Amino acid sequence: MPHLKGVKILLVDDEPNILSFLELGLQNEGFEVKTATDGITAVTLAKQFKPHIVILDVMMPGMDGFEVCRILKKTENMAVIMLTAKEEVEDRVKGLTIGADDYMIKPFSFEELLARIHARIRNHFPHLWGEVTIGPFRIDDRRKEISYHDRILELSPTEYEMLKFFVLNHGLVLSKAKILDHVWGYDFGGEDNIVEVYIRSLRQKLNDREHRLIRTLRGVGYRMDLG
């Protein structure tokens, strides 16, 4: 995962152990981190700190995460990742409906949280990326170039967007629908097998004959593994 300087993250959770664990981990990744243990403090701190990302627990005393999210999304330009121990679909739908950008169920891995943070930065604040190195890949978004093991790949614009999407979300399962939405847009009217065509081309250019880099998960989607 790349280290991104200047990215500010606000952690909001009423469990001290979770807060301290995430705070230390994210600081080690190069992020500037502030914490809050309740909703009212979170809203006040967000207006002062101006974070890029808010990692927000749903179940808190007083003002819950849903209300905090609703307030922040009305007034601030920030991405919100909601955390909850609940698995009810209704809670996830409610969070996304009021403006949350992503949703994670506790317990979760720190690596997955990092991947989701990077995805949100990529989507909301692309100017913060510039040139980044992730594993054997180097992405230069200004030149629209991707290098693999220091070799610049010859990519079409569509291949560039797809490979960048995979690299920035490595370790996460990406469905055909997600890939289509991100690379071709929501109004794409073609066949979804176009994804398979481009993945086949990317595998050839990456010399990924055994599909160890871009893995196919039958009936689910694809996942990039960097080792």
Report what the structure shows.
The modification 4-aspartylphosphate is found at residue 57. Keywords: DNA-binding, Phosphoprotein, Transcription, Transcription regulation, Two-component regulatory system. Residues 8-121 form the Response regulatory domain. There is one protein chain. This protein is of the alpha/beta class. It has two domains: 8-127, 3-Layer(aba) Sandwich (Rossmann fold), CATH 3.40.50.2300; 130-224, Winged helix-like DNA-binding domain superfamily/Winged helix DNA-binding domain (Arc Repressor Mutant, subunit A). Helices cover 40% and strands 21% of the residues. Strand 7 (137-140) and strand 8 form a beta hairpin. The longest helix is centred in the middle third of the chain and has 15 residues, at 110-124. It is globular and about 55 Å long. 27% of the residues are buried.
Strand order of the largest sheet: 2-1-3-4-5
Helix content: 40-55%
Count of DSSP helices? 8
Structural class: alpha/beta
List the helices and strands and how they pair.
Elements: E1 8-12, H1 16-28, E2 32-36, H2 39-49, E3 53-57, H3 65-75, E4 79-84, H4 89-97, E5 102-105, H5 110-124, E6 131-134, E7 137-140, E8 145-148, E9 151-152, H6 157-168, H7 176-183, H8 194-205, E10 214-217, E11 221-224
Parallel strand pairs: 1-2, 1-3, 3-4, 4-5
Antiparallel strand pairs: 6-7, 7-8, 8-9, 10-11
Q: What's this entry about, in short?
A:
This is Response regulator transcription factor. With 227 residues, this protein is of the alpha/beta class.
Entry keywords:
single chain, 227 residues, alpha/beta, Rossmann fold, 2 domains, 5-stranded parallel sheet, 8 helices, 11 strands, 21% strand, globular, two-component regulatory system, phosphoprotein
